[in-house]
């Protein structure tokens, strides 16, 4: 099978015979060869196509021998694309002209009539130079982007509210350590984003960040997924495979939805964390692993310890530091920051002229409970941007769930017929309705701490 041709070549010369001969020869070696007799079309040609090498005649009919027109167009090409690779063509082997051309940005020159093999060697060298230039430009862009990103602390997280400032403070304190971190929060609050921020600001940031959704791993594949396996150790084990622990060696292992892990698997995970070793399925030799562990769950994991559905020793192992992520309804100051971010993102993605949210829509978003948190806000904005026919989003563009629930029967009966738990459930529900789901305000009115109220919410399924 022949090697795939690469490289796009543009040849500018007013000699049509030369262009035809060059195209016939070079098409056998490069992916694309375009020719043009009129240099005035260069700006259009280079705008419509990104050429790897441009062959440019030094002397057109307007200026037969001095090369001045060639120098003019060399400057224009480099102005349009500073990374352009230009090989000049001249029929007058003037060494001084060639030296000046290279000083002014040309890569090389060829004399006409040329030898085909020499021309091919020159263009291949020029093509390699172009590839290196593009690589350097890409690295520069990446470096600038990374530097700008690094200059903004926690730029990957959107939020300026007081509760998020506390989260940032915690990240700053723990990131540089190797302490295990447990992130608690409702679905859609951005737990993985916080985990990545911790990794990014840690001493392990040049190593891998490996995430695992423990809620999606079946019991039969748990050991293979986390610890790896040897070829032939079970039916589908067609080759040796490193598990997530090995993949995260020297980096960070993020165990999402750890509260969903069944008790038998909790014991296996605890053993790996305690011994800092894993043994691949089908192998006898243990492998040392050096990982920083970050876990997350939306479940009431402390209550699960009392219910004997989560091991206490595993909880001690994973939560040296605990971060409680607030729900979006407790981040009033961040709702519009997030909404504007998503509006700009999806307007660009879907090429829609949507610029902002209207005042009525802003009021509606600020009153809404956001049970799905940031994820719900993101999906709602995406849908609104796609469906809207306006450049300012209106309330009717945003589809939100109806959160107000009818009063249940047990709230309408006399309190004298209820036990203490029924009364507590009713009071909590009333407080939440009064404060539009704002946990902190409801807790203050009830005389509870936020954590105490969270435990009761889980207990009563509210």
Outline the structure in words:
With 462 residues, the chain is an alpha/beta fold. It folds into four domains: 8-134, Rossmann fold (3-Layer(aba) Sandwich); 169-232 and 240-324, Rossmann fold (3-Layer(aba) Sandwich), CATH 3.40.50; 331-397, Helicase, Ruva Protein, domain 3, CATH 1.10.8.60; 420-460, Arc Repressor Mutant, subunit A, CATH 1.10.10. It is built from 19 helices and 16 strands.
Q: Concise description?
A:
The protein has helices at residues 16-26, 42-48, 68-80, 95-103, 116-151, 162-175, 191-200, 222-227, 244-247, 263-275, 301-306, 312-318, 332-349, 359-367, 373-387, 409-412, 420-434, 439-446, 450-460, and strands at 8-12, 32-36, 53-57, 86-90, 108-111, 181-184, 209-213, 228-229, 241-242, 252-256, 277-278, 287-288, 292-297, 321-324, 356-357, 392-393. It is α/β, with parallel strands linked by helices.
- Strand proportion, as a percent range, falls in 5-15%
Dominant shape: elongated
Instruction: Tell me the helix content.
Output: 40-55%
What's the level 1 CATH class of the largest domain?
A: Alpha Beta
């Amino acid at each position: 099978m022949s090697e795939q041709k690469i490289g796009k070549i543009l040849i500018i010369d007013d000699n049509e015979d030369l262009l035809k001969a060059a195209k016939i020869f070079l098409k056998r070696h490069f992916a694309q060869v375009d020719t043009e007799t009129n240099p005035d079309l260069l700006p259009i040609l280079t705008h419509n196509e990104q050429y790897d090498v441009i062959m440019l005649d030094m002397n057109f009919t307007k200026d037969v021998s001095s090369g001045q027109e060639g120098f003019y167009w060399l400057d224009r090409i480099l102005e349009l694309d500073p990374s352009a690779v230009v090989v000049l063509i001249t029929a007058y082997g003037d060494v001084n002209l060639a030296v000046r051309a290279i000083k002014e940005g040309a890569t090389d020159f060829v004399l006409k009539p040329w030898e085909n093999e020499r021309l091919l060697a020159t263009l291949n060298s020029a093509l390699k130079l172009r590839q290196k230039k593009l690589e350097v430009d890409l690295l520069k862009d990446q470096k600038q982007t990374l530097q700008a990103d690094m200059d903004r602390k926690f730029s990957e997280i959107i939020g300026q509210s007081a509760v998020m400032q506390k989260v940032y403070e915690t990240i700053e304190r723990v990131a540089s350590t190797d302490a295990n971190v447990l992130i608690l929060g409702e679905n859609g609050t951005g737990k993985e984003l916080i985990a990545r921020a911790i990794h990014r600001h840690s001493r392990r940031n040049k190593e891998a960040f490996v995430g695992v959704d423990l809620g999606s791993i079946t019991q039969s594949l748990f050991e293979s997924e986390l610890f790896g396996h040897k070829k032939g150790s079970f039916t589908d084990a067609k080759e040796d495979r490193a598990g997530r622990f090995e993949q995260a060696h020297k980096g960070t292992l993020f165990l999402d939805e750890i509260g969903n892990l069944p008790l038998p698997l909790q014991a296996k995970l605890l053993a790996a964390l305690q011994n800092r070793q894993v043994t691949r399925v089908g192998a006898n030799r243990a492998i040392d692993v050096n990982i920083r562990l970050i876990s997350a769950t939306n479940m009431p994991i402390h209550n699960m310890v009392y219910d004997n559905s989560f091991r206490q020793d595993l909880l001690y192992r994973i939560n040296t530091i605990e971060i409680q992520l607030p729900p979006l309804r407790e981040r009033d100051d961040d709702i519009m920051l997030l909404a504007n971010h998503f509006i700009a993102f999806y307007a660009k993605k879907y090429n829609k002229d949507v610029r902002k949210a209207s005042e009525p829509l802003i009021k509606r978003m600020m009153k809404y409970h956001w049970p799905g948190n940031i994820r719900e806000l993101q999906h709602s904005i995406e849908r609104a941007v796609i469906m809207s026919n306006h450049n300012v989003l209106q309330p009717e563009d945003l589809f939100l769930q109806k959160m107000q629930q009818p009063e249940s029967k047990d709230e309408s009966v006399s309190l004298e017929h209820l036990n203490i738990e029924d009364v507590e459930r009713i009071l909590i529900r009333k407080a939440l309705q009064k404060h539009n789901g704002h946990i902190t305000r409801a807790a203050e009115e009830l005389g509870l701490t936020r954590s105490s109220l969270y435990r009761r919410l889980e207990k009563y399924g509210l």
